[in-house]
Design brief:
The protein has one domain (3-232): Ribonuclease Z/Hydroxyacylglutathione hydrolase-like (Metallo-beta-lactamase, Chain A, 4-Layer Sandwich), CATH 3.60.15. Strand 8 (130-135) and strand 9 (140-143) form a beta hairpin. It has helices at residues 48-57, 74-80, 90-95, 152-158, 161-170, 182-186, 192-204, 221-228; strands at residues 3-6, 9-19, 22-32, 38-41, 60-64, 85-87, 117-122, 130-135, 140-143, 208-211. The longest helix is centred in the C-terminal third of the chain and has 13 residues, at 192-204. The protein is 28% helix and 25% strand. By secondary structure, the protein is an alpha/beta fold. InterPro entries: DUF4336, RibonucZ/Hydroxyglut_hydro. This is DUF4336 domain-containing protein.
């Protein structure tokens, strides 16, 4: 189930979830930090196969939500790994008062992972803020909903014709820009903070870009993100 994409970083694809009637694939990222702890980004549905594979990698110590939409499976993970610290931006924490979070994440990484992972905080929209992350050793940038790149095969298999048309018009397919959905882009009324975060991301010069929804990039990450985030002005 886990796929290694470089030393000490893995991805796992989960089942689809429904978002306002649209099927969305899920993907999580696991990083083994320098101290051996596992950092788990956007956890997918937890099953026994995944639990066993994680046990072979190390102890799960950090569970990370990149934005307030990525929270569906946090409860089960926190129950299964009670020793793990739960992290997210303030917007996720506000949405899930039933969960025990650490302090809200900002653009400064906590000391627990700052040696291995950097982060950038995209703000300026009343709908959504998001933390992007960067695994330094592998040159991998990690995005939730601000970069979406649905493949044609997935759309043909899972989305209705009118939904596929909307996806292309919105620019969220791999062939039409790999952007955030149009409504989300338009909601960024103040893009100065978003541009500041984008500058930080591009300064990372990532080689890989892993995204939660769609086709991730194994190479050319900097060029890909410069295009995908160009709507910020």
């Amino acid at each position: 189930m886990l796929q290694s994409i470089a030393d000490n970083i893995w991805i796992a694809d989960g089942a689809d979830v429904s978002f306002h009637g649209f099927p969305y694939p899920t993907r999580m990222v696991i990083v083994r930090l320098s101290n051996g702890d596992l950092w788990v980004w956007s956890p997918i549905d937890l099953n026994e196969e995944l639990r066993a594979e994680l046990a072979s990698l190390g102890p799960v110590h950090h569970l990370v939500s990149p934005n307030r939409l990525h929270h569906l499976f946090l409860s089960r993970w926190q129950e299964s790994f009670p020793q793990a610290h739960l992290w997210g931006p303030a917007s996720t924490i506000d949405k899930r008062p039933d969960l025990a979070f650490e302090r809200g994440l900002t653009d400064q990484p906590p000391a627990a992972w700052s040696r291995d992972i950097d982060q950038a905080w995209f703000r300026g929209s009343p709908l959504l803020d998001e933390l992007a992350f960067f695994h330094k050793a592998s040159g991998t940038a990690i995005f939730g909903d601000l970069v979406q790149a649905f493949g044609e095969d997935y759309l043909k298999a899972k989305w209705k014709p009118w939904q596929r048309c909307l996806a292309r018009l919105s620019g969220i397919t791999a062939l039409t820009g790999a952007r955030a959905p149009l409504d989300l882009r338009l909601s960024f009324l103040d893009r100065r903070l978003a541009r500041k975060a984008r500058a930080k991301v591009l300064n990372w010069q990532p080689e890989r870009v892993v995204i939660a929804h769609g086709q991730w990039r194994r190479s050319g990450g900097s060029t890909f993100l410069a295009q995908s985030l160009s709507w910020m002005g």
